[in-house]
Amino acid sequence: MAGSVQDAALKDALAQAAAEIDHTLDHIMPPAEGPEAPLLAAMRYAVIGGGKRMRGFLVLEGARQFNASRQAALRVAAAIEMLHAYSLVHDDLPAMDDDDLRRGKPTVHKAFDEATAIIAGDALQTLAFGTLADEDTHPDPAVRVELVRCLARAAGARGMCGGQMLDMLAEQAGEPLDEAAVGRLQLLKTGRLIEFSAEAGAILGKAPMSQRLSLAAYGRDVGAAFQIADDLLDATASAEETGKRTGKDAEAGKATLVGLLGIERARLQAERLVAQAGQHLDSFGERADLLRDLAAYTIERKS
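Structure for Farnesyl diphosphate synthase, as requested:
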């Protein structure tokens, strides 16, 4: 019974967060009108009304640990979701993963065209940083600068973009990566942005460095578990269940921990990461229960 109550509480909290984040995105993003309407429509199509908003939820729950402004946290969550959406738009392009389906609907380059998808991704990225830099996000310019700095690090050549490059190079080389190399690739490509999402609430709340580092470590482990879960879904679930094409990693010959370890060992590794993530939250007490539940949810989800 306790488990079902916890699951329901997390489900309700995720749904509320997603609705609030979408409302914030709708407010931040310009309406699709004027000569630039096709670009603005593609931006909105890419980011509003889709996805689990897990990264945004991490921001909101991290900020709640320090009683930081909910409105400020929503703007940071929206910025991260815009940047995440840009990465998906570009990943789906024919030059990258060449996907036709994302979140149960046609990818941006299919719904519009390739050129519009590229520009929409670029515009989402710049709007994300502009949102963090805006004084409406936080009155303290030092906090805004730190948010911009950390997101740039998480998304750049030593983060998400670097991980994507490693993924492409491995695919081009046609040689299997070992477990350590796959772990680093996934840490950069997926983990850095999730790590920042967990840490961002502490930055907003001007938290002590020890607690900020604890949330970052939690996010790092959750990110690693999330990627393993994604690889497991790609290997075992259907496109109808996930809302996107599955089986593509094996088809492309991509190295994943699931491919290296096998399904059962990969699941065990994800469970260990979830347990470890929870340990990083010990100093926050019961207030962080939703974060603990979210860590477990990352490997139990079906999409």
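The first strand starts at residue 101 and ends at 102.
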